[in-house]
Amino acid sequence: MPKMRAIQLIEIGQPVEMRTLDVPTPGARDVLVQVRAAGICHSDAHYRAGTSPTDPPVTLGHEVAGVVAQVGDAVTNVRPGDRVGLHYLVTCGECHYCTLGSEQFCVNGQMIGKHRDGGYAEYVRIPARSVVRLPDEIPFEHGAIMMCSSATSFHALRKSRLQAGERAAIFGVGGLGMSAVQLARAFGALDVYAVDINPDKLALAERLGAIPVDASVVDPVAEIRRLTGGRGVDVALELIGLPEVSRQALQSVDVFGRVVLVGLSDRLLAVDPYREILGKEAEIIGASDHLISEFPLLFEYACRGALDLSDIVTRTVPLEAGAVNQVMDELDAYGGGVRTVITPAA
Fold this sequence. Notes:
The chain has helices spanning 42-49, 96-99, 140-160, 175-186, 199-207, 220-227, 243-251, 273-277, 295-303, 321-332; strands spanning 3-9, 17-22, 30-40, 58-59, 63-71, 83-86, 89-90, 110-111, 123-127, 131-133, 167-171, 191-196, 211-214, 233-238, 253-261, 283-286, 313-317, 339-342. By secondary structure, the chain is of the alpha/beta class. Strands 3, 5, 6, 9, 10, 17 and 18 form a seven-stranded mixed β-sheet that branches.
């Protein structure tokens, strides 16, 4: 049986480890993908820490792009040699939510890299229904992070109902936030405010067209209101997962403002119902994952240059446990670069 290297979470709260595993054999409706790039997401650090539950041992990695190595007998949508990205949700396609086109709530759904083995490996097996063709114009490293960070930001902005001429604030300009800044502009936002405490990330967000707000220097709520003539923004995306940041996002919106919560947290969020919600008819909206139907338009934005990830992938690392643990340690401290990608073949 052919073997492969894979980085697995063996025990919650402990460093991930390298393992040698059998190369998966695809079933009739499965695809075996040779991994060319796998993004290290903050969610992976949450899984390691136990903030978000998973069931080890499991191969992490849900931001994955690669080349089709083998297909099952019943697969017709891709063939060996195709460049693909992996929609990280493995769904049944038959339950109530799948038939509604909201497969992120599939009652039988599993997430690669969390509920089943993912892409921190040389190969990954996934049902063909969760594979999307990756345009030649999009590098594998970009394609990998688009499968999560860009797609999640895209879905959150769609949930926000952001309209041309409105103003948006992005709280947290890491991997998701840098995509959110560009996509908000593509949606027609008049101004996009990037809120963070990292000066390097703020400088990059500014180069991408955002107005930087350094939360380590100023009160971001007061600064956003000053910059908007006292009104606030129409849409605020919270991408960090800290209750205090969620409160800032809620306090920064104008009348009829929409706050979309995306960042994962295991802490409770306290709100002032009248001042922060009822009194201005604001909305708190949850955004969970994204949809496979959203990828064609997302890829089109990238192919046309409206979404440029050249400066977002700030580092690549080999498929080595030590390197991956170091990146996760940095993410736990809300540091590191914007996005780090594992390149197994490098």
